Structure formats: C-alpha cells, structure tokens
Amino acid sequence: MGTTGDRATIEDQQLAVDTFLRARDRHLDGAPGTAAHYERCQESVLQAFDKLIRRIAERNAYQVRNRESVADLMQVGRIGLLTAMRDFDPDRGTPFAAFAANHVQFAMGHHLRDNTWAVHVPRGAKERRSQVALARQTLTENLGRSPTVNELADFLRTSTDEVLQALLADGAATTYALDDVPTQGRFDSGFEAAEVKLVLQAFLTDCSPIDRQMFLLDIPRNCSQRQIAQQVGVSASHVSRRLKALWDEFHARLRGEESSDLDTVRQ
User: Where are the domains of the chain?
Assistant: First the structure.
C-alpha cells in the first residue's frame, strides 16, 4: 500500500498533467496570450515528475557502472518527458505516468547506446537494435505494458532469437527483464520486489551474454531446458548445469551471502 506521501505525489502529478493538457489545447488552438501560461504548466509537469526521472536515471547509471552521471541522465530524461508531453493523447487510454516513464527511459537508453559502445558493432546489429527499441516503445504505448519477446517478434515479423540477440546486444534485455520479472514464486520468499530487482540487475550485468540469455529465458518458466538450448545454441546438459550454477549464485546474492566470482562459475 502506498504512503500518504506517495498518494500526494500522484495527485500532484495528475493535477499538473491535467492543467498542462488544458493549456496545451488552448495554446495549440492559437488562443492569444497562452504561451507564458503553457510554459509555466510545462515546468510544473517537469517538477512533478522530477522524482520519477531521478529514479530512472539512477537505475540507468547503476546499470552502466556510473560511466554517466545521474545529473546528466536526468537532463536527457527531461527531454524525453517533454517529448511525452508533446505527443501524449489522453483519448488512447494510456496513463500519462506510464507513457512518460517509457519516453524517459527511451531517451536515456538512446543516449547511453550512442555514447557507451565499448566495441565496434556491425551495422546490421545496430539496425536490429533500433528496430526492436522502436517496436518496444510502440507496443508499450499500445498495450499499456511492456511487450513480451514473442509479441516483439510477431510485430517485427522475425524470430524470438533475433529479438533476444538485439536486446542483449546493448544490455536492453536487463531493463526489459526487470520491467516484467515475476518477484513471487520464482525467487526466494521473504524479499521485497524492489530488493529482488536490484540484486537481479547487478547479477545480470555480471553475467556473460550467453549466461544472461539462458537466465532470462528461464525466469518465466515457459521454456524447457531443451528449448533454451535450441535458442542459445548449446547442449541441454550444458543449459542444465549452467542454470543450476547461476540460480545458486543469484540466490546467494539475494540472501546477502558472499558471492562467488562469476568468472569461476562460467564454463
């Protein structure tokens, strides 16, 4: 249950958004003397969603090991929020907060991908990454939630393996997985969802690409180990051995025990 402060923040956000939308309509209709009021309402929305932008910026800065400062990412996130304010259509039924969060994350993700490529990436891989990123944004807005890998593959008329490879190519699979990861049943009980996701994010960052892909495919429990092996291109026995080691390592980290060096876990 949210706190009183949380409810107040949500109410403040909704009030700021509603006021802005009315000002935007009048401004777009060309009503005289509306420019200054429109800009003030725009600034009110930016202030109301400042905590949201900071949370997303901190998550992204942590994911790239602070190679980008939170302050810099927040500036990028504000541009994403301004884009969301410009494009938001209340008649589509998507809550503005979800619409805005997606645009903020999308802007930060593009910024990080454009500025943190550590190695040369083939043009084809970059194009697939961009296609998947745009498809995620479109489907999230249409569905009101993050799309599954299968939905992305259907939308792009490609295979789930191509989608996974594109997500893994730039680390987007980490963010994708954390959006929808089930925090009950698959993980040890007694942990808060936020705690599980924080540990999971750091764990996935430390995994090799193949280990990360296997782990992400195993989380929803809708793929057999043989199916995972076919998607990853290794033997089923290797998948079984690796998944046991990875889950043991993850659960140790979740319980706060001294974790193994993943380099020694990898085969």
Answer: 124-169, 181-267
